[in-house]
C-alpha cells in the first residue's frame, strides 16, 4: 500500500484515472517522477487555460511574493484587488459595454453558484430555480440541487427541493422546442410548477458531454426570462475566460445575463478564485451576508491581472479561433471518418468525441487509458462517461496540439481493433 492509499480518503478520483506521481509541469506538458512526459488535454478541468507555470504570470506572482505583498486579507481593500478590479473593468466589462458589480466569493466555483442562487431568491422573493437536464454546477448542496447527474447527488439527501429540470437541446430534444415547453409550463396554471426566481444555464454543457447550445436557443431563453420576470444566471465556470474564443461564452449570442459565475481559469495560474458578476440593481446584499475566510485570494488577484494583460497583448482570442479550426477539421476528418457511430461536438477549444454508440463507458475508458499510456492526459464526460473531452490549454503550441490529437486517433483505432 502506497502513501496515498494509506493516508488519503477514498473520495480521491483523478489519481485513479491517471496513476502517476507528477512533480512538475510547464506549458502543456506534465512530468512524472518516473520520467514520463504527458501532453495535457485536461488543463486542471479547465482551470489552466494559460497552461502550467505561464512565464509572464509566474513572474508577476514571484515579484509580488518577493515584495512581501499581502497574502491574505479577507475582503479588505488591497492594492492587488484594486489593480485586478481596474483591469477587469477596463479590458472585460467596459470594453464589452457590460455593467456588473463584482462579488468575490469563496475560493471555488460552487460557492459562487451558491451565492447566485441565494441572491436570486432574495431579489425575487421566490424559492424555485429552473435548471437543465445534463447540467453540472458543483458539489455543494445548492449546486448539487441544480445538477442533473443523479449519481453525484446520491450521497446528499434532499438536494432537489424547489428545483425543476427543463430539457436542454440535446439528443431527441434537439427536434423538440424546449423553449416553447418552458413557456407552456410557465403559462399553464395547472402545470404544477411555480414561476422560479431564476433559470441557471451553461451555454456549453461541458461535464454534460460538450453539448453546445444553439445561438437562437440562448437568445430565446433570454427573451423568455425577460417576459416572465425571471433572472437568467450563466454558469461560465468551465467555458468562460476565453475557452470558447470570446472571454464570455454567451457573447456569441449577443445577450447579457443578469448574473454570471466565473471561476477555474479566472486566476490565470490555477489559484483558487471565484467571482459572481451581478447587475447593479440586483446587488441588494447586506454587508457580510455572503462571506468566507478565503474570499479575495490575493495571489489570484495578481495572477488574474497578469492573465488579462497577457490575453490583451498576445491576441489570444484570435489564436483560439485558429486552433478551433484545426480541432474541428481534425476531429471531423480524422476521427469521425473512422466510424459513423462517432459524434463530434464542440466550440473554441472544448471538444467532445462521443462514442456512446459503441456501448457503455468501458469502451470510452479503454481509449483514455490507452491515451495515458501513450503520453496524453484526457478525461471523460457526458452521460455514463462516454464522451472523450478535449480541454487543452488555450496557449498550447500547434505541434503539441497535433501530437495530442494523433494520440487520440491511435488509441481509438487500437480500441476498435481489440
UniProtKB/TrEMBL annotation:
Belongs to the class-III pyridoxal-phosphate-dependent aminotransferase family. Its cofactor is pyridoxal 5'-phosphate. InterPro entries: Aminotrans_3, Aminotrans_3_PPA_site, Dat, Ectoine_EctB, PyrdxlP-dep_Trfase, PyrdxlP-dep_Trfase_major, PyrdxlP-dep_Trfase_small. This is Diaminobutyrate--2-oxoglutarate transaminase. One of its GO terms (biological process) is ectoine biosynthetic process. Keywords: Aminotransferase, Pyridoxal phosphate, Transferase. It comes from the Bacteria. Pathway: Amine and polyamine biosynthesis; ectoine biosynthesis; L-ectoine from L-aspartate 4-semialdehyde: step 1/3. CDD domains: OAT_like. GO terms for molecular function: diaminobutyrate-2-oxoglutarate transaminase activity; diaminobutyrate-pyruvate transaminase activity; pyridoxal phosphate binding. It comes from Dendronalium phyllosphericum CENA369. Its EC number is 2.6.1.76.
Amino acid at each position: 500500500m502506497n502513501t496515498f492509499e494509506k493516508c488519503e480518503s477514498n473520495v480521491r478520483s483523478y489519481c485513479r484515472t491517471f496513476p502517476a506521481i507528477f512533480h512538475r509541469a510547464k506549458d502543456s506538458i506534465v512530468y512524472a517522477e518516473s520520467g514520463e512526459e504527458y501532453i495535457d488535454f485536461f488543463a486542471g478541468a479547465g482551470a489552466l487555460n494559460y497552461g502550467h507555470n505561464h512565464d509572464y504570470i509566474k513572474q508577476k506572482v514571484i515579484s509580488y511574493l518577493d515584495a512581501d505583498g499581502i497574502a491574505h486579507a479577507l475582503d479588505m481593500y488591497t492594492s492587488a484587488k484594486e489593480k485586478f478590479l481596474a483591469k477587469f473593468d477596463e479590458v472585460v466589462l467596459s470594453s464589452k459595454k457590460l455593467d456588473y458589480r463584482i462579488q468575490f466569493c469563496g475560493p471555488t466555483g460552487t460557492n459562487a453558484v451558491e451565492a447566485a442562487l441565494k441572491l436570486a431568491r432574495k431579489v425575487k422573493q421566490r424559492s424555485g430555480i429552473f435548471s437543465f437536464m445534463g447540467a453540472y454546477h458543483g458539489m455543494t448542496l445548492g449546486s448539487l440541487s441544480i445538477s442533473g447527474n443523479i449519481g453525484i447527488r446520491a450521497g446528499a439527501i434532499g438536494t432537489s427541493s424547489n428545483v425543476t429540470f427543463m430539457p436542454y437541446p440535446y439528443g431527441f430534444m434537439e427536434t423538440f422546442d424546449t423553449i416553447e415547453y418552458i413557456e407552456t409550463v410557465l403559462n399553464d396554471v395547472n402545470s404544477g410548477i411555480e414561476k422560479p426566481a431564476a433559470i441557471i444555464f451553461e451555454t456549453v454543457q461541458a461535464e454534460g458531454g460538450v453539448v453546445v447550445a444553439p445561438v437562437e436557443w440562448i437568445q430565446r431563453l433570454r427573451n423568455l426570462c425577460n417576459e416572465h420576470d425571471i433572472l437568467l444566471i450563466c454558469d461560465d465556470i468551465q467555458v468562460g475566460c476565453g475557452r470558447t474564443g470570446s472571454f464570455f461564452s454567451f457573447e456569441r449570442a449577443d445577450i447579457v445575463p443578469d448574473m454570471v459565475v466565473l471561476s477555474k481559469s479566472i486566476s490565470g495560474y490555477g489559484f483558487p478564485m471565484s467571482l459572481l458578476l451581478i447587475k447593479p440593481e440586483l446587488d441588494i446584499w447586506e454587508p457580510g451576508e455572503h462571506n468566507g475566510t478565503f474570499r479575495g485570494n490575493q495571489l489570484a488577484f495578481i495572477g488574474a491581472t497578469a492573465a488579462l494583460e497577457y490575453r490583451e497583448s498576445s491576441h489570444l482570442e484570435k489564436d483560439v479561433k485558429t486552433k478551433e479550426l484545426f480541432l474541428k477539421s481534425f476531429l471531423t476528418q480524422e476521427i469521425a471518418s473512422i466510424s459513423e457511430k462517432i459524434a463530434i461536438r464542440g466550440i473554441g477549444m472544448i471538444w467532445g468525441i462521443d462514442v456512446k454508440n459503441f456501448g457503455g463507458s468501458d469502451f470510452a475508458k479503454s481509449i483514455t487509458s490507452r491515451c495515458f499510456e501513450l503520453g496524453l492526459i484526457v478525461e471523460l464526460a457526458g452521460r455514463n462517461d462516454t464522451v472523450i473531452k478535449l480541454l487543452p490549454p488555450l496557449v498550447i503550441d500547434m505541434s503539441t496540439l497535433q501530437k495530442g490529437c494523433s494520440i487520440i486517433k491511435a488509441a481509438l483505432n487500437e480500441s476498435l481493433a481489440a
